[in-house]
Design a protein that fits this description.
Elements (H helix, E strand, L loop, with lengths): L19 E2 L2 E2 L3 H8 L4 H14 L8 H15 L6 H13 L12 H13 L2 H13 L4 H13 L2 H19 L2 H4 L8 H11 L6 H14 L3 H14 L5 H4 L8 H13 L7 H16 L13 H9 L7 H13 L6 H13 L15 H12 L2 H4 L2 H9 L6 H7 L6
Antiparallel strand pairs: 1-2
């Protein structure tokens, strides 16, 4: 067997046609995995696109997802192959889905495993009764219709299969972490950064991986790799790392300073000492005003959005400053980039959404009013998204731009 085929060893021994992905039997996956090893760049691109569509369809994972993991891991480790960074990114996606669901506090694997165990033990009839009660508790007809639709779509067997497939894919990637962590020393900085990103999602492996990530901070020269290692260490570690990571708040590279602030916010550094807290706030606020260049994979490279969610962790100590910074950042967004920033701003301004909505505009304080006017000033490319309507609806705000401008007493346009 030639070296280039080593990552595919055992591929044909798997009964792919008996495994399912988003479109049915997974008998097309072996060909797509082979194409990832090809010299033809277009063939590799098409294969990667296909795999994101079938074994990771809009974030869902399937029985075939876990089966593909060992081959992708061996491809990532094979220096003779192309696109190894993309293989690592796909492995991370298969493990956790979309990372914004786990940020800014990190992956709660213990909670995930507990919920999966509880779901396995539940009686489907009891779940349906809970759905019935949930529908009856709807506060208005629109919400009732939404809940009725979700109740009608509930299929216990199908949902249990999804639970098992997602956790199965996660554990398949976890089993490859001991080998993949060696790629922190790879010659390719993009591979090093992607590896550091991948390791962030496996707290059960932190006893081995966290020291390796901290070692990266001592010898790495590429800012994106340092930044990624900082954020990953922050997601895996505890407050004992505060002293170790604080010096990076004054690094010469903006992306490294952002990463240090992000890590320290997650570690609870705001309660450690005022000097650290103020530095964290300052760097996250600076990111809201002008995000550093991309180069990190977290939050799909949207550092303003990630900074906004991190600023919610500072709400207890710096409620006004955090809200001001996120509102400033929101005013500079457009389209989907505004979604996480708007959600963070609303949470900072009004707390968690409640059933009663908001009072009259005149009863809001100055910062709350400024946020509402900022929402009303966002462009049509932001307000055309149903995702955005759902965000503002959760806080009882109007779901149309004209209506929220009227609520704020802003002139018609």
């Amino acid at each position: 067997m030639t070296e280039i085929n080593a990552p595919l060893a055992g591929l044909d021994a798997i009964g792919w046609s008996e495994l399912e992905h988003a479109y049915g039997p997974a008998d097309d996956v072996p060909g797509q995995l082979r194409a990832l090893c090809a010299e033809d760049a277009e063939a590799r691109r098409e294969a990667l696109h296909a795999l994101y569509g079938n074994i990771f369809h809009q974030g869902s994972r399937y029985p075939a997802s876990a089966a593909a993991v060992p081959f992708l891991a061996r491809m990532a480790a094979d220096v003779t192959l192309h696109d190894r960074t993309e293989h690592l990114e796909l492995l991370a996606a298969l493990a956790i889905g979309y990372d914004e669901a786990h940020l800014p506090v990190g992956l709660d694997i213990a909670g995930w495993r507990r919920e999966a165990a509880e779901f396995r033990g539940q009686d489907p009839e009891e779940i349906r009764a809970e759905y019935d009660a949930w529908v009856e508790a709807a506060t208005d007809e629109g919400e009732r219709r939404v809940r009725e639709m979700r109740r009608a779509m509930f299929d216990h067997a199908q949902q249990l299969e999804a639970v098992e497939a997602e956790l199965g894919a996660y554990d398949a990637v976890r089993s490859e972490v001991p080998v993949l962590s060696a790629l922190l020393g790879d010659d390719d900085p993009d591979v090093r950064a992607a590896t550091a990103y991948l390791l962030a999602w496996f707290p059960e492996e932190a006893g081995d991986t966290l020291p390796r990530l901290l070692d990266v901070l001592d010898g790495e020269t590429e800012p994106a790799v340092v930044a990624t290692a900082l954020v990953s260490a922050g997601l895996l570690g505890d407050a004992g790392l505060v002293q170790r990571l604080t010096p990076f708040l004054t690094d010469g590279e903006p992306v490294v300073r952002w990463a240090a602030a992000t890590a320290l916010a997650r570690l609870g550094a705001t309660g450690a000492e005022h000097a650290v807290s103020a530095g964290v706030l300052a760097e996250l606020a600076a990111t809201e005003a002008e995000p550093p260049g991309a180069g990190v994979l977290f939050h799909e490279g949207d550092l303003r959005g990630y900074a906004a969610t991190s600023l919610t962790l500072l709400a207890d100590r710096f409620p006004e400053e955090a809200l001001d910074a996120v509102t400033d950042g929101l005013s500079a967004t457009s389209g989907p980039a505004g979604f996480p920033v708007a959600m963070a701003a609303l949470r900072l301004a009004f707390g968690e959404p409640g059933p009663d909505g908001l009072p009259e505009f005149e009863e809001l304080d100055e910062r709350q009013q400024r946020l509402i006017r900022t929402l009303g000033s966002l462009d049509a490319d932001t307000w055309r998204w149903a995702n955005f309507w759902e965000i503002v609806r959760r806080w009882g705000l109007p779901q149309q731009r004209e209506a929220i401008r009227a609520y704020a007493g802003m002139p018609e346009e």
